[in-house]
Specification:
Largest sheet: 2 strands, antiparallel
Helix content: 40-55%
Shape: globular
Low-confidence stretches: 1-5
CATH topology: name from scop
Number of helices: 3
Distance between the termini: 39 Å
CATH class: Alpha Beta
Oligomer: single chain
Length: 92
């Protein structure tokens, strides 16, 4: 049984294709069990995971396939820099 004080997990998945996308976009989002499934799939495919509850809160207001707003570019750029560094350390 889940502790009632536990906060329900929210997840947002972003994708950015530099050749076809103007900005990163939301490709998946979910809460609770769906969030757990998204995280599980990300781990299965070696997708880096970064926890940032305040960013998730803002991004959760976007729809699937919606590009992130310009005012979030710098924050999301930091996230993608983290992923780039993680990939480099793993030899990808």
């Amino acid at each position: 049984m889940k502790n009632s004080n536990e906060k329900r997990k929210d997840v947002i998945a972003l994708k950015y294709n530099t050749e076809s996308d103007v900005a990163p976009k939301v490709i998946a989002k979910g809460k609770g069990l769906i969030a757990d499934e998204i995280i599980s799939k990300a781990k299965d495919f070696g997708v880096p995971i970064q926890e940032d509850p305040s960013l998730v809160e803002v991004l959760s207001k976007l729809e699937i396939n919606q590009s992130i707003p310009e005012d979030l570019y710098s924050v999301v750029a930091e996230l993608f820099a983290f992923i780039y560094r993680a990939d480099k350390q793993m030899g990808k």
